[in-house]
Write a structure and sequence with these properties.
heterotrimer; A alpha+beta (172); B alpha+beta (291); C alpha+beta (778); A: alpha+beta; Ubiquitin-like (UB roll); 2 domains; 5-stranded mixed beta sheet; B: 291 residues; alpha+beta; Uridine Diphospho-n-acetylenolpyruvylglucosamine Reductase, domain 3; Enolase-like, domain 1; 11 helices; 24% strand; globular
Chain lengths: 172, 291, 778
Amino acid sequence: MSVEQEFPELRTVILTVNGERHEIEIETRMTLADCIRHRIGKTGTHLGCEHGVCGACTVLVNGRSARSCLMLAVQANGAEIITVEGLATDGGEWHPLQQAFHEHHALQCGFCTAGILTSMVEFLGEHPDPNEEEVREALSGNICRCTGYQGIVNAVLDAAGRLRAANGGDVK
Amino acid sequence: MKPPPFHYHDPDTVEEAVALIGRLENAKLLAGGQSLMPMLNMRYVLPDHIVDLNRIPSLSHIDQADGRITIGAMTRQREIEYSELLWERCPLFRKALLQVGHRQTRNRGTIGGSLCHLDPAAELPTVLAAMAAAVHVVGPQGARDIPIADFPAFYMTPAIEFDELVSAVSFSPWPTGHKSAFVEFARRPGDFAIVGVAALLDMADDGKIRRATISLSGVGAAPVRCTTTEERLIGTTPDDVAIRAAAEACRELDAMEDVHASPAYRQHLAVELVSRAVRTALDDMGAGSTS
Amino acid sequence: MSEGLIGTPVRRLEDAALLTGTARFVDDIELPEMLECAFVRSPHPHAAIRSINPTPALSLPGVHAVFSYADLAPLFTKNLIPPDNPGLKFAETTKAIVLAEEEVCYVGEIVAIVLADSRYIAEDALSLVDVDYEILPAVADCRDALAPDAPRAHRHAPDNIVTTFRTEFGDCHSAFGTAAHVFDLSLKQHRGSGHPIEGRGIVVQFESATKGLTVWSSTQGAHRVRNTLVDIFGLDEDRVRAATPDVGGGFGSKHIVYPEEVIVAGAALLQKCPLKWIEDRREHFLAAIQERDQYWEFEVATDEEGHLLGVRGSMIHDQGAYTLLGFNVGHNASLAVPGPYVLPNYQLDVTIAVTNKVGTIPVRGAGYPEGTFAMERAMDLIADKLGMDRAEIRRRNLITAEMIPYELPLRARDGSTTHYESGDYPLCLQKALDRAGYTQFAERQATALSEGRYIGMGLANCVKITGRGPFETGIVRIGPSGQITVHTGAMAMGQGIKTAYAQICADQFGVNPSDVRVIAGDTGTVPMGIGGFGSRQTVTAGSSIHLASIEVREKALKTAAHMLEASEQDLELKDGKINVAGVPGLSVSLSDVAKALSGAVGYARPKDVSPGLEATANFMPTGLTYGNGVHVVEVEVDIGTGGVKITRYVVVNDSGRLINPQIVEGQIIGGVAHGIGNALFEWMGYDESGQPVTTTFAEYLLPTAPVVPNIEIVHHETPSTVNPLGVKGVGEAGVIPAAPAIMSAIENALAPFNVRIAETPISPPRIIELIEAGKNGA
């Protein structure tokens, strides 16, 4: 492994995060998770394992959930990224999932929550009327150590109902 | 767990990618990243160069021509899962993919990446083995095809040169109405299976099995066909007892050992899951049906 | 006392920041000129350090320093993390050191620290620090460690024993001599690690001008961190502050002060710039505490009807290489055996063994899961041998409500005897059985069997010690602005204390919990504190805050009476205002009262009320308080694959009075999920040489949503008699009886194959093995 003058290798990327455009110069080996957290300053997305199992780092990249610890930031050049900070409206009104999580005690320490919220935004966008088993299956890529999942499942089912009632209301 | 430093390349054509891996020392191809990135983060691999294939649109496609279906190597598992063409012509793919990882990993993971990584527990290589797929490889000398059976060289190592990359896989789908099933056992849903079984059956008009392919993951280092089981099934309309008798042949397969399971357990699972896969396949409505 | 807020499922005050991504965990803290750290860790289970050459690492651009023992030791008053209990005697060689000088005793033990511009560069530097190791023989299995010729886990130690002790009461010798029945059991128990989704981490800032040291640590004990740093570095106590940011779970993994925290602080003192260390998951696997293995060999004596006459035996506990927090996992496990049962005679010889692995301290449950597992497996065995129903054998042996308070001549760590002061165990058992449909199950099971399906029902009881003292601070303060603030030494790690304590306080002032700000885990605002572990905080801190709130309320009323020239009896306190009953216009606000007591000019102040609308309480519980639970579990076992599906899970839980039922249920469900992990999934594996073999989440399996069922909870509340709130701790309640209840159910499902389960966790391959053995008549 050669480490001297050729490194750090830098690239300029343009990332749109929660609707805001960022043009930044980063190291090519920087993960998308670290870029979002430390260069763009959105620390709501968390790192739990850095090997793609716990799901805490999940964000939406061009509408699709992705483990941001398993992407290089350079790979997201030109992409639209949604993180937990982008789920509420500009006026601060919570997404129905956030509201439901609050009401159903779907979080305790909150460290895994951002990754679950973004994952569920995608899931409910594609499956607006899931049953409990389907919700649990959809959650299988996110690990929570605190809640035992029950509050989360209840919250997702509740939010699904609210979103359906709002007539396919804008699931980002 | 941060990746080591490397030079990053993101070509936008296959030719450029081939040229890069031909000239760069200690280079690794980056596909979906679901296998390579964990290894990079844990520094299990220390490449000097990463050649990212994600900016090459020509590598991502699902086409049908002349009776063969071709899937580009960079096609996301998610696209394969949702492909109407594949659901109609080869539903085995979706059946397998529903058990592959999680939505987040299928959004990024690719068929080529999974195939080249050759994790013994991976489902897609086993499906491709069941389909007797051809692997299309491109190198500096041009393109060549490798039959899937010859593709694994040894444990997690494909039989391609350092300056070649997999561009696509292709296969001839089984006839309309063929039956299929993918059955696996994993500790938790979405985990790599300890053993997985892809079963394809083609039925004659008299209801007997005319053709059978049973392909297993998680038993050997590479997908394994249990031809003895296949032979026992052909020409029969097996009941549960006969299915199990046919599946028993899988107990003789050489099985590997790791932190999750012993060889004996894998053999046991092979018999059990092959029985279930055949049973499930027999109950299948058949490819191209409206369900 | 108002019944208003206590017992109400108030929505959590913590949620808003966490849901919108604006919370602040330790890795979110950025300080100017901060460097990031990584640790050079031993790749060997046991080795001597011959030399450390940092030069190649130092020449890497972006690397600022590499420190090892030689650099840091001069800063230490002693190379020792002060023990919890200095009086505790055990093998000196296993004392918790800060940093190895010349011998490392587990894979992951720290050899050096690298300081760099980024974590990326720090990790690059790790492979460039040239360490010359001499590999020494290692011992991995705690039973092998006890052989006279076993390799010494610490090379200069005379043996591999931390300590041995006997927990006993009564006269087992006579009891066993005359017993109608004696049955023996051999159990292997394994609990893994805590694995909060947020790993450990610390940010340290040293101000050389003021010699002030501030640390933010993801810890369960800010005061412990502060005290340790003061002690080790000989610092001025007033100049060291330990604060906690938001903490992403603890579960015991963040209970102690780790070498990492001390070394980062030491490095900050040397380098004189802010430092950050954030653990990655691999480090957590290697170097965060675990619970691991216990081997039990014991026998149980009963009379003809299955009444327990005695339990006696021995247990070996795998402590790892260092005694980081006494040996209370082993000790607690021995204390937990009697559980809710009448046990007249007991004797357990415990050996705490040293192995070349990271040290053991309590993970959620703290030895109670293991002791409970032992007793509950014994119960099922007795039932089976005597041809009795498993619920009946338990009912027969339970301490009844009439026998409460019930004293066991068994001493807890703090010397107090075991005194079950409240609880109704038979009623809880009955409630659980009724809810689960226990008596109808046999028929359902027979039907399933006829269809070729194997379903089973199992149960387990437990008692859990909670509310450990000596105290926890509660300061309630209403400032001139009228803002009600609570300061507490209790620690938040996701369990919602800021909401629960706000409820307790708000209750006294007729305000919303959101009007009360709770500040926890900061030594800068609370001088003393013990920390979050052992299900203790609601009892201790909650009671302190309750008492302090009452005191402040009384002060406020007395002052208001003076200000309004009214009698205290005629006043009411509501919505932050005190008015004369029936005369809303005649009122003062809490802000007015606070100003009056702060000496503001123009405010009348009664002469016999001390200044400041505030009070401090350090409630000292007179005894421990015991919660209890019953779990009844239904499973279906796939005898083809060995897979287990939990199809139903019923919990009856008594944690005394509930402050916030929603939070309590969250704790129970989370605990049960952890227990499911302990029963079916979590195994921290080492090979024979002491190399960890499960070091990722792909190999170490945590329970995920599809494998955790809905948990049905029935509450039973027998208020505690040893604290003013009547509460009991609940943080660990869910995990303790889970594994034995699940094993009981699996055994029940596999009864046709004569399967007996004497281990936890159990895997599908193992179940197939047991089925095959049972079929073959083993």
